[in-house]
């Protein structure tokens, strides 16, 4: 069992992550009527370049990439995933977006087997199966909940899974700061170019409240990943993942309170199936690794 200070730190870091992820979604929803999605993402990427670059400069950390081709491939896919996720946030109930995004670990499991040749175990099969069953419950094919935007968000989860597999490969040679810096630097011109090619027609004039929401997005977009990474550093995945699941009821309550979005019991059932498969797989992986952690003769 982890000492209380570590458990308390995990809870505090996860509280920051939950608030940051929720703030990111709400900020996108608030800014979108006054600014195109590509312009929103370009602003976020520009802020990321400035902030991460400043941190690296202060800490005197090198940012030169060793595997630029992999950086480019990773960020082309991640750029598409970011746009698809943001598009879903503007059209779907926020809780639906978050529930579908939670299928990412199931896609990672499947892609790791296909791309990285990792072993396919019973628990990994169960995680993928429960994940897809959860998606069917959330979307309920043939019911009004199934919209084209839902499929776009599901596509973003696949793209985020591909990004995660590429990130796993990059971390063997690159620092976290380098990965974050090049992520924002590569996606900045992509968003600027796409914004010029596909100009948005805002429904509202850009006002002070939109500027505030945009500032929140730029900050929360970084603090969400910082807090989540810090939580994983202080606690095991089997502890962090169930806390991360609280994102769904939290964003559901915020969506209900701010936008009058319904609290759909089918959504919570589907989300429980998705996360249940993830937690089951994490527990099985922890049991498999436990014997290796025990010294011989202990």
Structure notes:
The protein is mostly helical. It has a domain at 93-173 and 264-298. The protein has helices spanning 4-31, 37-59, 68-91, 94-101, 104-115, 122-139, 148-170, 176-197, 208-234, 237-244, 247-259, 265-293. Helix 2 runs antiparallel to helix 8 and helix 3 packs antiparallel against helix 7 (148-170).
Helix and strand topology:
Blueprint: H1 4-31, H2 37-59, H3 68-91, H4 94-101, H5 104-115, H6 122-139, H7 148-170, H8 176-197, H9 208-234, H10 237-244, H11 247-259, H12 265-293
Structure in a nutshell:
The protein has 298 residues and is mainly α. It has a domain at 93-173 and 264-298.
Q: Total strand count, please? A: 0
**Rg, Å, rounded:** 19 Å
Q: Mean pLDDT, as a whole number?
A: 84
**What would you call the structural class?**
mainly alpha
Helix content: over 70%
Instruction: Choose one word for the global shape.
Output: globular
Summary keywords:
mainly alpha, Permease, globular, 298 residues, transmembrane, disordered C terminus
